[in-house]
Fold Cytoplasmic protein.
Amino acid sequence: MIDFNNKGFFKLKQNEEYAERVSALLLDGEQVIDSYKSMRDGVVFTNKRIIAVNLQGLTGSKKDFTSLPYKNIVAYSVETSGTFDLDSELEIYFSSLGKVKFEFTGRTSMVEISKLISQHVL
């Protein structure tokens, strides 16, 4: 599993590539809502969970997929971009796991991500 205490996902940008990378892992009826990519790693939001993808090694052929079900979220925090700080952040607190933090580029709609999570948590 990804060590979220020592590794963050930085500057995630909307990208459909990661939706394809997790397609084999999806359950019947599970649909990709949105996907994001950083330099190598990525995050996919589905209608059931968040899947964090960590490419390992020089070639990236070894992959770590961490499934983060919405049902285990106990709290979350969204920080939107500002005038000078163009990046936004999502911090999610999972029962038994702790905090997971994702950083997005300024063009990311944090309101939409917040609504998606709220639909499954509240």
User: Anything to note?
Assistant: The chain has a mean pLDDT of 86. Helices lie at 17-21, 110-121. Residues 80 and 88 are 5 Å apart (CA to CA). The chain has two helices and eight strands.
